[in-house]
Amino acid sequence: MTDLDLDDVQERAPKTADFDAFFAEQAEQQPRQALALFGRRYVLPESLPILFTLQAERLQASEDPDDVRRMLTALYGGDVLDEWAEKGLTDKQLGVLLIWSAAAIRAPGTVSMERAAELYDRQAAGKAQGPNRAARRSKKKPKAGSSGKRS
After folding, report:
1. Cα-to-chain-centroid distance, residue 131
2. Nearest of 54, 39, 26, 30 to residue 106 by alpha carbon
3. CA distances from 72 to 14, 67, 116, 130 (A)
4. Contacts of 79-84 spanning 24+ positions with Cβ under 8 A
5. How far is residue 133 from each of residues 42, 46, 69, 128, 142, measured CA to CA in Å?
C-alpha cells in the first residue's frame, strides 16, 4: 500500500469556481440606489434580479396583477403593489418608477426621474399607435390571384 500525501490529493482535485464569493465581492463594489415613495425608503438590489427581467417579458402580454406583484417584489421586497395602489399610485407613475429603477440598478445616475417620465410617455405613445412597422410588415398578407405585375 502506498501512503497518499493529502497535499497531492488536493492538488489533483478539480478546482471549484466559487461564484458565491465572486458575486458577493462584485456586489460590494457596486453602489446601491435608494428611493423614497409614500414616506418609505426602498433600497434597490445591486443588479437586476432575473425574476424581474423574466416578469417584465411576461408582462408584455399579461393583464394578471400577480405578474406585476412578483416583479415588484423582486425589486422592492414585500407586497408593495397593494400598498402603493391604496395610496393612489397611478399606472403612469408605476411605469416611470420601473423605468427609473431599472436604469438606476444598471447604471446609477444615468436616468433622471424626468427622463424616465419622457421614456414612459414615448413608450405609451408607441403602444397607442398599435404594432410597430416591423410587426406590421412581418404579418403575411393574403395573396391575390395575380403576381402584382402590370400587364
Report:
1. 22
2. 30
3. 40, 9, 17, 26
4. 80/42, 83/38, 84/37, 84/38
5. 39, 36, 32, 13, 18
pLDDT at 48 over 60: yes
CB atoms within 10 A of CB 51: 13
What is the DSSP annotation of 57-79? Answer: HHHTT---HHHHHHHHHHHH-S-
Backbone dihedral region for residue 109 (phi beyond 0: left; psi -120 to 50: alpha; all else: beta): left
Query: What is the crossing angle of helices 50-59 and 65-76, to 10°?
Result: 150
For the stretch 65-74, pLDDT in tens is 888 888 888 8
CA-based nearest residue to 31, from 112, 101, 108: 108
pLDDT in tens, 121-150: 998 888 777 655 555 555 555 555 555 555
Q: Hey, which residues does 41 pair with through a beta bridge?
A: 36
Find the helix packing angle between 91-106 and 113-128, rounded to 10°: 120
